[in-house]
Amino acid sequence: MNWPTIGIHLVGYNRPVELYRGSRVRDTSWHNRGWRKDLAVFGIGKRLLNANGESERHPVAGMMVQAGKQVGVINQVNAGAEWSYDGTIDKRLDDDNIAGSPYKVAFTGGHEFLLGRFIFSQHAGVYILNDNPYTESWFHRWGLMYRAGKNLWLGFNLKAHLHVADYADVRLMYSWH
Asked: Is pLDDT at 3 greater than 80 in this prediction?
């Protein structure tokens, strides 16, 4: 994710490959789908080293709301907002005796690959409330969700600021059209 690469691949076959010669069928069923709305909660115990060099866990929790529109057979674009609390920032602000807040609010936008019961997503966000000196003003997030029911999704996301991963969270999402 953080280091784009390019590669060359060479494949050889012992026998000629039979290509599909049937007629192509275009799937247009997604054209009539409306906007998908999502409401999610997320959280994790994030590690922080204390003054003695020992690892401590502090809570990270939040909620997200977004709406998306399918623009292709497996593509969807969406926009939304999220609120989060980061306990490690709260601890660092207290330890460093700095005035600030561990709460953040952000606007997000992104793209999702709709892969049957799975969604692979990539989003970018800009903080509109980020009153601490420890994080950048924007982030990117990568996620994988699994549909566990008609409207229920379970998954995880990795959030990063610039090239530094911040945390991976676990998500529970409710979706409806």
From this structure: no
The predicted structure's pLDDT at residue 1: 55
Amino acid at 73: V
What's the CATH number where 33 sits? 2.40.160.20
Phi, psi of 102 (to 5 degrees): -85, 0
3-state DSSP assignment of residue 72: coil
pLDDT in tens, 25-65: 888 888 888 999 999 999 999 999 887 888 999 999 999 99
Per the structure, the complete domain to which residue 43 belongs is given by 29-176
User: If you ran DSSP here, which 8-state letter would residue 24 be given?
Assistant: -
d(CA 86, CA 81): 16
**In this structure, is residue 24 part of a structural domain?**
no
In a domain, 21, yes or no: no
C-alpha span between 63 and 152 (Å, rounded): 15
The domain total for the chain is 1
Q: What is the pTM of this model?
A: 0.83
What's the rounded Cα separation, in Å, for the pair 82 and 66?
8
Give the helix, strand, coil percentages of the chain, each rounded to 5. 10, 55, 35
Spatial distance between the Cα atoms of 163 and 86, rounded to a whole number of angstroms: 19
Q: What is the mean pLDDT of residues 101-108?
A: 98
Residue 161 placed within a domain: yes
User: Letter for the amino acid at 61?
Assistant: A
